[in-house]
Every structure is written in structure tokens, then in C-alpha cells.
Amino acid sequence: MDDNKTASFSLDSRRAATTGRDDFERSWRTHVGDGFPLPRFSAATTADFRLRFRAAKVRDVAITSVDGVSAAQTADGPSHDADQVRLWLVRSGAWALGSRRNTVEHTVVAGHFLLRHAARMHHFALPPHTRAQCIVLPAAPFSLLLGGREVAGRADAAEVRLLAAHATMVEETLPDLSPAGVQAARDTLVELATAVTHHGFDDVNTRLAPALAQAAKNLAEERLADVDLSSAMLARELNVSVRTLQRAFAAGGESVTAYIRERRLESARQALVVSRLTVSEVAAHWQFADSSHFSRAFKQRYGLAPTEYVRKNT
């Protein structure tokens, strides 16, 4: 593998329908295209191309995130050979796949994923307001695992959460990674995708620690006001042991409990400034034992008692 075969770009054409397709194709061919050819788009798609893309090429792996206002569909034409494995993860909308245009063989609906081996590039159609991610991987590591089958399920499955969290981190940090970091990022993408085919993963592997910690943080953000939020709840949702989760956070110099406490304090601080809630109401909402406990923690973190902070910032 060549260390130079990495690149990323982002493009938002949601307000530039007439030039968006040309800008996207130019950026893709410049930064990602080698080994990952683009399909031809339908005339309707090229005429109204209002989508936001973020793409990263990590050697022989490609990640594409799409957030569309308009619909998108491939056109008839020669189909590229593509001995690759693809994973489609749909957050909203849908991703319809077929061997021929206007033929739907599988639709990945919101909240679900599909992973399959593809010898040729699929035709696809996305309705308006689809938000999804597609990860293209080399076929070799999956040849025995997949054995011609496909794997489908819910996007909130623990292994899929880990893969999505890692893919997003790679998209964001790729330009700053060293060659060793690029190799680790690529290998972890492949390993997490193979875990999806097993519906499980080796939770002892330390290479997965950053992805596991990020997936836990993403989940914690959704549950900050939940009275049950804890290391045990996060570990249960992500299908790992509490000890494994704690080790993943420790690898980044953090603890799960400290992270939850910090995020709750920060959310409470923002609520004090922008809402009409009292200190007691804020403390209760963010699951502090009582207002006195909250006030002590707040002053220790921000240097002022909550009431003083509100007076100075409103």
C-alpha cells in the first residue's frame, strides 16, 4: 500500500444545484477517484444536484457521507468492475440498490445498514433528504466471512455504532494523520467491518479503543439527561464489558464517569444562561443529586457559584 494514497474533501452543493455535480465530480476524481470510479448520474440528478458530501480515501478503503436535499439516481451505462465490499448505513431517507437502473433489489431504510460483496458497481437511487454513509472496503479480508451472503440489520447495533464512529473520526482527522496513523485507521476500519459480519468483535483489541470510546461518547450525548446513564448502561448498549469500556477511555486519558460529569456540567451551564430554569431545576434535569451538590461541582469547574455565573452572563 502506498502512503500517498490518502485524501479527503468536503463539498456542500445544497444551494448550488447548477454547478454542484461538476464540483463534486472534479473533487472526487482529484482526491478519491483512483480505484473508486464514480457512476454516471441520471439527467434529473445532474440538473438538480443539491447534496453535501464528505469523502475520505484511506488507501484501499473509501468513506462517503452524504446529506441530500435533492434526489440522486444513477444513469444507464457501462458498469465498472468493483471487487469490493460495501456497507451502506442510512440515517434518514433510503438507499435503493439494483443491478440495473430502475430495478430495486434491496432498499436500505432509515435506521438500518447493509453489508455485501459486489463484483460490479450497483445502480442506486436516493430520495430527497437522505442522510447516509457508504464505506467501500477491499474484498479479500471478507471472502471467507461473507461467503456470498449479505449482512443487514439495525444501525444502532453495537458493532455498527463503533464502525460509524471510527469512520467519522477518520474523515475528520485524515489530513493530520502520520503514515502509521493512516495504516492504523485503515486496519481498524476493516477490522470493525469484519466485526459487523460476525455481529461481535474482539473487545480486547486495543486498536478499537478510540472507536469504542467515541461511540460511547456519542451515545452518552443522546442520554445526558437520562437517570440511568452510567458506565454499565453504555457498556450494555455497546455490547462490551464495563472493564473494556473503562480501558478504552483510559487509553485516551479519561474516565467514563468524569466524561459524563463534565458533559452534564457543560450542558447545565448552557441551560442556566439560555433558559429560565432555576438552579434547582437545572440540577434535577441533569441528574445531580441536589442543588447543593450541583453548586459545589459547578463552582469547582467554573470558579463561580451558579447564581453568580448567571448574574455575570445574562
UniProtKB/TrEMBL annotation:
Keywords: DNA-binding, Transcription, Transcription regulation. InterPro entries: Homeodomain-like_sf (IPR009057), HTH_AraC (IPR018060), HTH_AraC-typ_CS (IPR018062), PchR_regulatory_protein (IPR053142), Tscrpt_reg_AraC-type_HTH (IPR020449). It comes from the Bacteria. Residues 214-312 form the HTH araC/xylS-type domain. Gene3D superfamilies: Homeodomain-like. Pfam families: HTH_18. The keyword Coiled coil does not apply. The keyword Ubl conjugation does not apply. This is Helix-turn-helix transcriptional regulator.
